[in-house]
Amino acid sequence: MKAEFRFQGMTCLLFVTCFLVCFCGFFESLSANDQPAAESPIRQIFTAGFAEIALFDLNKVSVDEAQSALPPALWSWKAIGREELPVVRQKQFGTTDEIKLVDGGKQLLVTSSGGGCALIQRVATPQVPTGTVLWSATVANAHSIEPLPGNRLVVAASTAKAGNKLVVFDLAKGDEPQAETPLYSAHGVVWDHQRQRLYAIGFRELNRYELTTDGDGKLALRLDETYALPDEGGHDLQPVPDSEDLSITTHDHVYLFDRNTKSFRKHPVLGDYQHMKCVSFRRNGQQLETLFVQASEEHWWSNSMGLFTQPVSITMTEAGQESIRIDGQPPVGITQVPLGKLGVYKVRWLETGISR
What we know:
Blueprint: H1 2-34, E1 44-48, E2 52-57, E3 75-78, H2 87-90, E4 98-102, E5 107-111, E6 116-121, E7 133-138, E8 142-148, E9 152-157, E10 165-170, E11 179-182, E12 188-192, E13 197-201, E14 205-213, E15 219-228, E16 237-239, E17 245-249, E18 254-258, E19 263-266, E20 276-284, E21 287-294, E22 304-311, E23 313-316, E24 322-325, E25 334-338, E26 346-349
Antiparallel strand pairs: 1-2, 1-26, 2-3, 4-5, 5-6, 6-7, 8-9, 9-10, 10-11, 12-13, 13-14, 14-15, 16-17, 17-18, 18-19, 20-21, 21-22, 22-25, 23-24
């Protein structure tokens, strides 16, 4: 009897042990299966070209040419119907040619070759609905815009009777220009926070300016330095994040300008691309994701955009900050992303941490 009882007890113990192992294994498996998959990094882009600017999730954009369609926009804006804009200014936004982010993308600066410039509230606040125009002005053939210190803006006015110049505004003083300086075919502007200088690209040169104020408080852009472009047709000007480089497109090439050495070099991938309307960068660790729009000789816009990822070299500055450099390392493929019926001129990453 004792032996039989011992065997039955051991059998029972073995059964319970197996049950617990299976039970725990089941829940471990269930727990593992229930774990959310690692989320893809946020890759959102703004598009500009015609009357509407829009924000899209690039992770949901198909590269299948058979589909040739974009997902629904996450956000969009157009001037028509905006009651805070005068009707005559609404009509100045028939096309859009620049988008710049303010306050990490909560606000946007937009320009149009039709003459419109605007500061738009993208992310709603309790006081200001999304899409509200906070400021607007008219600048002939406006092609780019950039925030300046002291709640000011600068607009690049390209070729036009009243254009070919840089125009400075003070947001507190409305749509009246506070300073102007000539620049033939002005197309791109970038403020360098570290150097406290404005870089602006024209047809044949890249200029650097100091924003000055005289004793009476009058603003001026003082030409500090000028650099002849390697070839004509200066077009897009963009900072490479966490880098001394500025990206510059011309009629026939894409260059990188080193602000330290004050020298130009061809972009190792896009150097000989023609008709480049824009190049935009997003850093992801040791790699740089690059978007670009290449038009044709027939059109100023495109129904597709290019995309590639490229390894970058990283060094440390004297201040202990990372600095990247685009060199000859090959990209991880170049993809042409079809945009369906959408015509684009500029595409910009929604990035909040670009260092200039």
